Amino acid sequence: MSADHPTLPPVRLRADAELARDALAAPLLADAARLARWAGPDTRVDAGGELVDEQLPAAAEALGLSADEEGELRAGDAWRLAVDTGLVEVEDGEAAGEAGGEDAPGRAAPGENLALLAGGSPRDVLALWLDGFDTVFADAVAPVLDDLDDLIGEDGEIDVDALDWDPEAEAEFLEGVLGNLYLLTVSEGGAGEGPVPLPALAASMVVPDDMGEPTDDVLEQVSDAMMRLDEQFRLLEPIGLVEYQPLDEALMVEEGEEPAVSVDDEDVTRYGMVRLTPLGLYGVRARMLEAGVDAPAVGDLADKGADALLDGIAGYPEAAAREETAAWLAGRDALGAARELLHAARGSDAGSPLRRLHCQQTLSLVGPEAEPAVREVLDDAELGGLARVWLAERGAADVPAPPESMIFWLAIDTIAAQLDADGDLEELQELIEGLTGRHGGFFEAAWRVEHPATAEVLEAMGRLHRDKGVAKDARKAAFKARSRSGS
Protein backbone atom coordinates (compact mmCIF):
# COMPACT_ATOMS: atom_id res chain seq x y z
CA MET A 1 0.00 0.00 0.00
CA SER A 2 1.13 3.51 -0.75
CA ALA A 3 2.83 5.87 1.68
CA ASP A 4 3.58 8.63 -0.83
CA HIS A 5 1.16 11.21 0.53
CA PRO A 6 1.94 14.94 0.45
CA THR A 7 4.04 16.08 3.38
CA LEU A 8 1.80 19.09 4.03
CA PRO A 9 -1.99 19.39 4.05
CA PRO A 10 -3.46 21.47 1.22
CA VAL A 11 -3.89 25.17 1.87
CA ARG A 12 -6.91 27.21 0.86
CA LEU A 13 -5.57 30.34 -0.79
CA ARG A 14 -7.59 33.42 -1.56
CA ALA A 15 -8.00 34.57 -5.15
CA ASP A 16 -5.01 36.29 -6.73
CA ALA A 17 -6.92 39.56 -7.04
CA GLU A 18 -7.68 39.60 -3.31
CA LEU A 19 -4.11 38.69 -2.40
CA ALA A 20 -2.81 41.42 -4.71
CA ARG A 21 -5.00 43.97 -2.92
CA ASP A 22 -3.55 42.79 0.39
CA ALA A 23 -0.04 43.14 -1.04
CA LEU A 24 -0.69 46.71 -2.18
CA ALA A 25 -2.06 47.53 1.27
CA ALA A 26 0.99 46.15 3.10
CA PRO A 27 2.46 49.20 4.89
CA LEU A 28 6.05 48.66 3.79
CA LEU A 29 5.23 48.13 0.12
CA ALA A 30 2.80 51.05 0.16
CA ASP A 31 5.53 53.28 1.64
CA ALA A 32 8.01 52.04 -0.96
CA ALA A 33 5.58 52.93 -3.74
CA ARG A 34 5.06 56.43 -2.30
CA LEU A 35 8.80 57.05 -2.20
CA ALA A 36 9.18 55.75 -5.74
CA ARG A 37 6.66 58.35 -6.90
CA TRP A 38 8.40 60.99 -4.77
CA ALA A 39 11.84 60.30 -6.25
CA GLY A 40 12.96 62.86 -8.80
CA PRO A 41 15.87 64.79 -10.27
CA ASP A 42 16.91 66.16 -6.89
CA THR A 43 16.94 62.79 -5.13
CA ARG A 44 20.46 61.76 -4.16
CA VAL A 45 21.74 58.35 -3.09
CA ASP A 46 25.03 56.96 -1.87
CA ALA A 47 27.14 54.28 -3.52
CA GLY A 48 24.91 51.53 -2.10
CA GLY A 49 21.71 53.10 -3.41
CA GLU A 50 20.64 54.34 0.03
CA LEU A 51 19.24 57.83 0.41
CA VAL A 52 21.91 60.24 1.61
CA ASP A 53 21.32 61.46 5.16
CA GLU A 54 20.23 64.90 3.98
CA GLN A 55 17.35 63.35 2.03
CA LEU A 56 15.89 61.28 4.86
CA PRO A 57 13.84 64.06 6.51
CA ALA A 58 12.16 64.88 3.18
CA ALA A 59 11.52 61.19 2.54
CA ALA A 60 9.91 60.82 5.96
CA GLU A 61 7.71 63.84 5.29
CA ALA A 62 6.70 62.34 1.93
CA LEU A 63 5.34 59.39 3.92
CA GLY A 64 3.49 61.68 6.30
CA LEU A 65 5.92 60.90 9.11
CA SER A 66 7.76 63.12 11.52
CA ALA A 67 11.31 63.88 10.45
CA ASP A 68 12.68 62.31 13.62
CA GLU A 69 14.84 59.21 14.05
CA GLU A 70 11.90 56.80 13.91
CA GLY A 71 10.44 58.45 10.82
CA GLU A 72 13.79 58.45 9.05
CA LEU A 73 14.36 54.78 9.90
CA ARG A 74 10.98 53.86 8.44
CA ALA A 75 11.69 55.95 5.34
CA GLY A 76 15.06 54.24 4.96
CA ASP A 77 13.46 50.79 5.17
CA ALA A 78 10.85 51.71 2.57
CA TRP A 79 13.49 53.17 0.26
CA ARG A 80 15.60 50.00 0.41
CA LEU A 81 12.56 47.93 -0.49
CA ALA A 82 11.77 50.27 -3.38
CA VAL A 83 15.29 49.84 -4.75
CA ASP A 84 15.38 46.06 -4.26
CA THR A 85 12.02 45.53 -5.97
CA GLY A 86 12.72 47.81 -8.93
CA LEU A 87 10.20 50.46 -7.92
CA VAL A 88 13.15 52.84 -7.95
CA GLU A 89 16.14 52.86 -10.25
CA VAL A 90 19.40 54.32 -8.99
CA GLU A 91 22.43 55.54 -10.88
CA ASP A 92 25.80 56.10 -9.27
CA GLY A 93 27.44 59.51 -9.36
CA GLU A 94 30.00 58.67 -12.02
CA ALA A 95 27.39 57.24 -14.41
CA ALA A 96 25.16 60.22 -13.74
CA GLY A 97 27.97 62.58 -14.73
CA GLU A 98 28.09 64.26 -11.34
CA ALA A 99 31.12 66.29 -10.37
CA GLY A 100 33.36 64.22 -8.13
CA GLY A 101 33.10 61.04 -10.18
CA GLU A 102 32.46 57.79 -8.35
CA ASP A 103 32.49 59.55 -4.95
CA ALA A 104 29.68 61.89 -5.95
CA PRO A 105 26.10 61.15 -4.85
CA GLY A 106 24.05 59.16 -7.33
CA ARG A 107 20.59 59.88 -8.64
CA ALA A 108 17.30 58.04 -8.40
CA ALA A 109 14.11 57.93 -10.41
CA PRO A 110 10.91 55.88 -10.53
CA GLY A 111 11.63 52.37 -11.85
CA GLU A 112 9.84 50.34 -14.49
CA ASN A 113 8.18 48.11 -11.89
CA LEU A 114 6.30 51.04 -10.38
CA ALA A 115 3.82 50.90 -13.26
CA LEU A 116 3.01 47.27 -12.37
CA LEU A 117 1.46 48.32 -9.08
CA ALA A 118 -1.22 50.30 -10.87
CA GLY A 119 -1.46 48.64 -14.27
CA GLY A 120 -0.11 45.12 -13.82
CA SER A 121 -2.04 41.92 -13.32
CA PRO A 122 -2.57 40.46 -9.84
CA ARG A 123 0.21 37.97 -10.61
CA ASP A 124 2.54 40.87 -11.46
CA VAL A 125 1.78 42.53 -8.14
CA LEU A 126 2.26 39.29 -6.22
CA ALA A 127 5.57 38.60 -7.95
CA LEU A 128 6.78 42.04 -6.93
CA TRP A 129 5.55 41.48 -3.38
CA LEU A 130 7.43 38.17 -3.23
CA ASP A 131 10.61 40.04 -4.17
CA GLY A 132 9.87 42.38 -1.29
CA PHE A 133 9.31 39.45 1.04
CA ASP A 134 12.73 38.08 0.05
CA THR A 135 14.30 41.43 0.90
CA VAL A 136 12.63 41.64 4.30
CA PHE A 137 13.48 38.00 5.04
CA ALA A 138 17.14 38.78 4.36
CA ASP A 139 16.93 41.76 6.72
CA ALA A 140 15.32 39.58 9.39
CA VAL A 141 18.19 37.07 9.39
CA ALA A 142 20.92 39.71 9.18
CA PRO A 143 23.10 40.18 12.29
CA VAL A 144 22.18 42.84 14.81
CA LEU A 145 25.05 45.33 14.95
CA ASP A 146 24.68 46.80 18.42
CA ASP A 147 28.36 47.66 18.92
CA LEU A 148 29.44 48.52 15.41
CA ASP A 149 32.67 50.21 16.52
CA ASP A 150 33.90 46.97 18.08
CA LEU A 151 33.40 45.16 14.78
CA ILE A 152 35.40 47.52 12.57
CA GLY A 153 38.79 46.07 11.71
CA GLU A 154 42.04 47.94 11.12
CA ASP A 155 41.24 48.13 7.41
CA GLY A 156 38.01 49.98 8.16
CA GLU A 157 35.84 47.03 7.11
CA ILE A 158 33.44 45.03 9.31
CA ASP A 159 35.14 41.95 10.75
CA VAL A 160 32.59 39.32 9.69
CA ASP A 161 34.27 36.60 11.76
CA ALA A 162 33.72 38.64 14.91
CA LEU A 163 29.96 38.68 14.36
CA ASP A 164 29.45 35.07 15.47
CA TRP A 165 26.85 34.88 12.72
CA ASP A 166 26.07 31.94 10.46
CA PRO A 167 23.85 33.24 7.65
CA GLU A 168 22.78 29.77 6.51
CA ALA A 169 21.86 28.68 10.04
CA GLU A 170 19.94 31.91 10.67
CA ALA A 171 18.00 31.55 7.42
CA GLU A 172 17.30 27.88 8.13
CA PHE A 173 15.99 28.75 11.60
CA LEU A 174 13.55 31.36 10.32
CA GLU A 175 12.49 29.14 7.42
CA GLY A 176 11.77 26.40 9.95
CA VAL A 177 9.73 28.73 12.14
CA LEU A 178 7.66 29.95 9.20
CA GLY A 179 7.23 26.35 8.05
CA ASN A 180 5.94 25.31 11.47
CA LEU A 181 3.61 28.30 11.58
CA TYR A 182 2.34 27.37 8.11
CA LEU A 183 1.75 23.76 9.17
CA LEU A 184 -0.12 24.84 12.30
CA THR A 185 -2.29 27.10 10.15
CA VAL A 186 -3.26 24.59 7.46
CA SER A 187 -3.53 21.41 9.55
CA GLU A 188 -6.91 20.14 10.67
CA GLY A 189 -7.10 20.68 14.40
CA GLY A 190 -4.27 23.22 14.25
CA ALA A 191 -4.36 26.93 14.91
CA GLY A 192 -6.31 27.67 11.73
CA GLU A 193 -6.68 31.41 11.36
CA GLY A 194 -6.02 31.97 15.06
CA PRO A 195 -2.74 33.24 16.50
CA VAL A 196 0.02 30.97 17.81
CA PRO A 197 1.80 31.77 21.10
CA LEU A 198 5.41 32.77 20.52
CA PRO A 199 6.70 30.40 23.25
CA ALA A 200 5.07 27.42 21.52
CA LEU A 201 6.57 28.41 18.18
CA ALA A 202 10.03 28.87 19.69
CA ALA A 203 9.74 25.56 21.55
CA SER A 204 8.86 23.79 18.30
CA MET A 205 12.33 24.70 17.02
CA VAL A 206 14.29 24.04 20.20
CA VAL A 207 12.69 21.34 22.35
CA PRO A 208 13.39 17.78 21.10
CA ASP A 209 10.26 15.81 20.22
CA ASP A 210 11.14 13.02 22.64
CA MET A 211 11.88 15.30 25.59
CA GLY A 212 9.47 15.14 28.50
CA GLU A 213 10.08 17.97 30.94
CA PRO A 214 12.40 20.59 29.38
CA THR A 215 15.63 21.24 31.25
CA ASP A 216 16.64 24.70 32.44
CA ASP A 217 19.16 24.86 29.61
CA VAL A 218 16.50 24.07 27.01
CA LEU A 219 14.11 26.61 28.54
CA GLU A 220 16.84 29.22 28.28
CA GLN A 221 17.29 28.33 24.61
CA VAL A 222 13.54 28.76 24.13
CA SER A 223 13.76 32.18 25.78
CA ASP A 224 16.65 33.18 23.50
CA ALA A 225 14.72 31.96 20.45
CA MET A 226 11.74 34.04 21.52
CA MET A 227 13.91 37.15 21.65
CA ARG A 228 15.15 36.47 18.13
CA LEU A 229 11.67 35.79 16.82
CA ASP A 230 10.28 38.91 18.47
CA GLU A 231 12.72 41.03 16.48
CA GLN A 232 12.13 39.07 13.28
CA PHE A 233 8.34 39.18 13.40
CA ARG A 234 8.46 42.93 14.03
CA LEU A 235 10.34 43.19 10.73
CA LEU A 236 8.06 40.78 8.85
CA GLU A 237 4.77 42.37 9.91
CA PRO A 238 5.02 45.57 7.78
CA ILE A 239 5.36 43.55 4.56
CA GLY A 240 2.00 41.93 5.38
CA LEU A 241 3.32 38.44 6.12
CA VAL A 242 2.10 38.17 9.70
CA GLU A 243 -0.06 39.81 12.29
CA TYR A 244 2.05 40.06 15.42
CA GLN A 245 1.36 40.99 19.02
CA PRO A 246 4.88 41.69 20.33
CA LEU A 247 6.48 40.30 23.42
CA ASP A 248 5.65 42.44 26.45
CA GLU A 249 8.85 44.38 27.09
CA ALA A 250 8.18 44.28 30.83
CA LEU A 251 8.96 40.57 30.70
CA MET A 252 12.42 41.01 29.24
CA VAL A 253 15.08 40.34 31.87
CA GLU A 254 18.67 41.36 32.21
CA GLU A 255 21.50 38.85 32.19
CA GLY A 256 21.87 37.21 35.57
CA GLU A 257 18.18 37.36 36.37
CA GLU A 258 15.73 34.47 36.02
CA PRO A 259 16.01 33.84 32.24
CA ALA A 260 13.49 31.28 31.15
CA VAL A 261 9.87 31.91 30.37
CA SER A 262 7.41 29.14 31.16
CA VAL A 263 5.20 28.20 28.22
CA ASP A 264 2.52 27.19 30.71
CA ASP A 265 2.08 30.69 32.06
CA GLU A 266 -1.62 31.57 32.28
CA ASP A 267 -1.39 34.84 30.34
CA VAL A 268 0.59 33.47 27.42
CA THR A 269 -0.46 36.39 25.20
CA ARG A 270 2.05 38.59 27.03
CA TYR A 271 4.83 36.51 25.51
CA GLY A 272 3.82 37.32 21.96
CA MET A 273 1.18 36.00 19.55
CA VAL A 274 1.61 35.58 15.81
CA ARG A 275 -0.42 34.36 12.88
CA LEU A 276 0.19 34.16 9.15
CA THR A 277 -2.06 36.42 7.13
CA PRO A 278 -3.71 35.04 3.97
CA LEU A 279 -0.95 36.86 2.07
CA GLY A 280 1.59 35.29 4.41
CA LEU A 281 0.27 31.81 3.65
CA TYR A 282 0.74 32.58 -0.03
CA GLY A 283 4.26 33.88 0.53
CA VAL A 284 5.50 31.06 2.74
CA ARG A 285 4.04 28.48 0.36
CA ALA A 286 5.80 30.17 -2.56
CA ARG A 287 9.13 29.88 -0.75
CA MET A 288 8.42 26.24 0.04
CA LEU A 289 7.63 25.44 -3.57
CA GLU A 290 10.81 27.19 -4.67
CA ALA A 291 12.74 25.01 -2.21
CA GLY A 292 11.15 21.86 -3.64
CA VAL A 293 8.70 21.22 -0.79
CA ASP A 294 5.40 19.55 -1.69
CA ALA A 295 2.93 22.19 -0.50
CA PRO A 296 -0.37 21.62 -2.32
CA ALA A 297 -3.19 24.14 -2.54
CA VAL A 298 -6.86 23.38 -2.99
CA GLY A 299 -7.63 23.98 -6.66
CA ASP A 300 -4.19 22.97 -7.93
CA LEU A 301 -5.63 19.87 -9.59
CA ALA A 302 -8.64 21.48 -11.27
CA ASP A 303 -6.99 21.60 -14.69
CA LYS A 304 -5.16 18.26 -14.37
CA GLY A 305 -6.22 14.83 -15.57
CA ALA A 306 -8.23 12.37 -13.50
CA ASP A 307 -5.10 10.36 -12.72
CA ALA A 308 -3.46 13.43 -11.15
CA LEU A 309 -6.65 14.20 -9.23
CA LEU A 310 -7.05 10.73 -7.72
CA ASP A 311 -3.37 10.47 -6.82
CA GLY A 312 -3.19 14.06 -5.60
CA ILE A 313 -6.04 13.90 -3.09
CA ALA A 314 -4.74 10.68 -1.55
CA GLY A 315 -3.39 12.51 1.48
CA TYR A 316 -5.99 15.26 1.67
CA PRO A 317 -8.37 15.61 4.62
CA GLU A 318 -11.94 14.71 3.68
CA ALA A 319 -13.24 18.28 3.39
CA ALA A 320 -10.31 19.41 1.25
CA ALA A 321 -10.60 16.34 -0.98
CA ARG A 322 -14.28 17.02 -1.57
CA GLU A 323 -13.57 20.67 -2.35
CA GLU A 324 -10.79 19.70 -4.76
CA THR A 325 -12.92 17.15 -6.60
CA ALA A 326 -15.82 19.60 -6.87
CA ALA A 327 -13.46 22.13 -8.45
CA TRP A 328 -12.19 19.45 -10.84
CA LEU A 329 -15.71 18.50 -11.92
CA ALA A 330 -16.84 22.09 -12.44
CA GLY A 331 -17.10 22.87 -16.14
CA ARG A 332 -16.47 19.28 -17.23
CA ASP A 333 -18.92 17.13 -19.13
CA ALA A 334 -20.34 14.76 -16.51
CA LEU A 335 -20.26 11.60 -18.62
CA GLY A 336 -16.79 12.30 -19.97
CA ALA A 337 -15.52 13.05 -16.47
CA ALA A 338 -16.96 9.78 -15.17
CA ARG A 339 -15.25 7.77 -17.90
CA GLU A 340 -11.95 9.54 -17.25
CA LEU A 341 -12.20 8.85 -13.52
CA LEU A 342 -12.95 5.16 -14.01
CA HIS A 343 -10.07 4.78 -16.43
CA ALA A 344 -7.69 6.45 -13.96
CA ALA A 345 -8.89 4.19 -11.14
CA ARG A 346 -7.56 1.05 -12.81
CA GLY A 347 -4.25 -0.48 -11.80
CA SER A 348 -2.50 -2.91 -9.50
CA ASP A 349 0.11 -0.52 -8.10
CA ALA A 350 0.33 0.29 -4.39
CA GLY A 351 -1.82 3.41 -4.67
CA SER A 352 -4.60 1.90 -6.78
CA PRO A 353 -6.99 0.88 -3.93
CA LEU A 354 -7.10 4.44 -2.62
CA ARG A 355 -7.55 5.76 -6.17
CA ARG A 356 -10.59 3.54 -6.58
CA LEU A 357 -12.01 4.70 -3.26
CA HIS A 358 -11.61 8.34 -4.29
CA CYS A 359 -13.04 7.53 -7.71
CA GLN A 360 -16.17 6.14 -6.08
CA GLN A 361 -16.46 9.18 -3.81
CA THR A 362 -15.96 11.56 -6.73
CA LEU A 363 -18.55 9.76 -8.84
CA SER A 364 -21.05 10.43 -6.06
CA LEU A 365 -20.64 14.13 -6.87
CA VAL A 366 -21.18 13.62 -10.59
CA GLY A 367 -24.79 12.55 -10.28
CA PRO A 368 -26.99 10.30 -12.40
CA GLU A 369 -25.27 11.45 -15.60
CA ALA A 370 -22.42 9.09 -14.72
CA GLU A 371 -24.60 5.95 -14.92
CA PRO A 372 -23.80 4.99 -18.55
CA ALA A 373 -20.07 5.14 -17.81
CA VAL A 374 -20.49 3.13 -14.62
CA ARG A 375 -22.49 0.41 -16.39
CA GLU A 376 -19.73 0.11 -18.99
CA VAL A 377 -17.37 -1.31 -16.34
CA LEU A 378 -19.72 -3.79 -14.64
CA ASP A 379 -17.72 -6.71 -16.03
CA ASP A 380 -14.34 -5.16 -15.20
CA ALA A 381 -12.52 -7.21 -12.55
CA GLU A 382 -11.16 -4.10 -10.79
CA LEU A 383 -14.08 -1.71 -11.24
CA GLY A 384 -17.13 -3.98 -11.37
CA GLY A 385 -17.51 -4.05 -7.60
CA LEU A 386 -17.43 -0.30 -7.07
CA ALA A 387 -19.74 0.10 -10.07
CA ARG A 388 -22.34 -2.14 -8.43
CA VAL A 389 -22.00 -0.29 -5.12
CA TRP A 390 -22.48 3.06 -6.86
CA LEU A 391 -25.55 1.85 -8.76
CA ALA A 392 -27.08 0.22 -5.68
CA GLU A 393 -26.63 3.38 -3.61
CA ARG A 394 -28.61 5.26 -6.25
CA GLY A 395 -31.38 2.69 -6.36
CA ALA A 396 -30.66 1.80 -9.98
CA ALA A 397 -32.57 -1.05 -11.59
CA ASP A 398 -31.13 -4.11 -13.32
CA VAL A 399 -27.91 -4.27 -11.31
CA PRO A 400 -26.44 -7.75 -11.87
CA ALA A 401 -25.37 -9.73 -8.84
CA PRO A 402 -21.58 -9.88 -8.50
CA PRO A 403 -19.72 -13.18 -8.72
CA GLU A 404 -18.26 -14.39 -5.42
CA SER A 405 -14.71 -13.68 -6.59
CA MET A 406 -15.63 -10.03 -7.15
CA ILE A 407 -17.17 -9.74 -3.68
CA PHE A 408 -13.99 -10.84 -1.96
CA TRP A 409 -11.75 -8.85 -4.30
CA LEU A 410 -13.76 -5.72 -3.50
CA ALA A 411 -13.52 -6.47 0.24
CA ILE A 412 -9.72 -6.70 0.07
CA ASP A 413 -9.51 -3.59 -2.12
CA THR A 414 -11.78 -1.58 0.19
CA ILE A 415 -9.83 -2.45 3.33
CA ALA A 416 -6.54 -1.73 1.54
CA ALA A 417 -7.84 1.71 0.61
CA GLN A 418 -9.02 2.43 4.14
CA LEU A 419 -5.67 1.37 5.58
CA ASP A 420 -3.89 3.67 3.14
CA ALA A 421 -6.24 6.55 3.95
CA ASP A 422 -5.28 6.47 7.65
CA GLY A 423 -8.91 6.90 8.59
CA ASP A 424 -10.75 6.40 11.86
CA LEU A 425 -9.51 3.20 13.54
CA GLU A 426 -12.85 2.31 15.10
CA GLU A 427 -14.66 2.68 11.77
CA LEU A 428 -12.10 0.40 10.14
CA GLN A 429 -12.54 -2.19 12.88
CA GLU A 430 -16.30 -2.08 12.38
CA LEU A 431 -15.83 -2.55 8.63
CA ILE A 432 -13.57 -5.55 9.18
CA GLU A 433 -15.82 -7.14 11.77
CA GLY A 434 -18.88 -6.53 9.61
CA LEU A 435 -17.29 -8.27 6.62
CA THR A 436 -16.18 -11.30 8.60
CA GLY A 437 -19.53 -11.48 10.36
CA ARG A 438 -21.56 -11.44 7.14
CA HIS A 439 -19.47 -13.95 5.23
CA GLY A 440 -18.99 -17.36 6.81
CA GLY A 441 -15.61 -18.79 5.90
CA PHE A 442 -14.38 -15.32 4.88
CA PHE A 443 -10.70 -16.08 5.35
CA GLU A 444 -10.83 -19.39 3.52
CA ALA A 445 -11.88 -17.47 0.42
CA ALA A 446 -9.97 -14.25 1.09
CA TRP A 447 -6.44 -15.67 1.06
CA ARG A 448 -7.01 -16.88 -2.51
CA VAL A 449 -7.95 -13.41 -3.81
CA GLU A 450 -5.73 -12.26 -6.68
CA HIS A 451 -5.00 -8.80 -5.31
CA PRO A 452 -1.51 -7.35 -4.63
CA ALA A 453 -2.53 -6.25 -1.12
CA THR A 454 -4.21 -9.50 0.00
CA ALA A 455 -1.52 -10.58 2.48
CA GLU A 456 -1.10 -7.08 3.94
CA VAL A 457 -4.85 -6.68 4.38
CA LEU A 458 -5.22 -10.04 6.11
CA GLU A 459 -2.32 -9.22 8.44
CA ALA A 460 -3.99 -5.92 9.29
CA MET A 461 -7.27 -7.72 9.96
CA GLY A 462 -5.38 -9.98 12.35
CA ARG A 463 -4.11 -6.94 14.23
CA LEU A 464 -7.36 -5.02 14.28
CA HIS A 465 -10.11 -7.60 14.82
CA ARG A 466 -11.21 -7.53 18.44
CA ASP A 467 -12.19 -11.21 18.50
CA LYS A 468 -9.00 -13.14 19.28
CA GLY A 469 -10.19 -16.27 17.50
CA VAL A 470 -11.08 -14.42 14.32
CA ALA A 471 -7.83 -12.46 14.51
CA LYS A 472 -5.91 -15.74 14.65
CA ASP A 473 -7.78 -16.99 11.57
CA ALA A 474 -6.82 -13.78 9.77
CA ARG A 475 -3.13 -14.27 10.56
CA LYS A 476 -3.28 -17.87 9.32
CA ALA A 477 -4.91 -16.68 6.11
CA ALA A 478 -2.23 -14.01 5.68
CA PHE A 479 0.47 -16.69 5.99
CA LYS A 480 -1.26 -18.77 3.30
CA ALA A 481 -1.54 -15.73 1.04
CA ARG A 482 2.16 -14.96 1.38
CA SER A 483 3.10 -18.59 0.80
CA ARG A 484 0.90 -18.68 -2.28
CA SER A 485 2.42 -15.52 -3.74
CA GLY A 486 5.96 -16.49 -2.74
CA SER A 487 6.50 -13.24 -0.82
Salient structural properties:
mainly alpha; single chain; 6 strands; 54% helix; 487 residues
Describe the structure in your own words:
- The structure is a single chain.
- This protein is mainly α and 487 residues long.
- Helices cover 54% and strands 4% of the residues.
- The protein has helices at 16-25, 27-38, 56-62, 69-84, 114-119, 122-140, 148-151, 167-186, 198-206, 216-236, 278-290, 306-312, 318-329, 334-345, 352-366, 371-375, 384-393, 404-421, 425-438, 442-446, 454-464, 468-485, and strands at 44-45, 88-91, 106-110, 196-197, 242-245, 273-276.
- The strands form 2 sheets. It has a 3-stranded antiparallel beta sheet. The chain has a 3-stranded antiparallel beta sheet with strand order 4-6-5.
- Helix 2 crosses helix 4 (69-84).
- The chain starts with 15 loop residues before the first helix and ends with a helix.
Short account of what is shown:
The protein has 487 residues and is mainly alpha-helical.
Topology:
Blueprint: H1 16-25, H2 27-38, E1 44-45, H3 56-62, H4 69-84, E2 88-91, E3 106-110, H5 114-119, H6 122-140, H7 148-151, H8 167-186, E4 196-197, H9 198-206, H10 216-236, E5 242-245, E6 273-276, H11 278-290, H12 306-312, H13 318-329, H14 334-345, H15 352-366, H16 371-375, H17 384-393, H18 404-421, H19 425-438, H20 442-446, H21 454-464, H22 468-485
Antiparallel strand pairs: 1-3, 2-3, 4-6, 5-6
Helix pairs in contact: 1-6, 2-4, 3-4, 6-10, 8-9, 8-11, 9-10, 13-15, 14-15, 15-18, 18-19, 18-21, 21-22
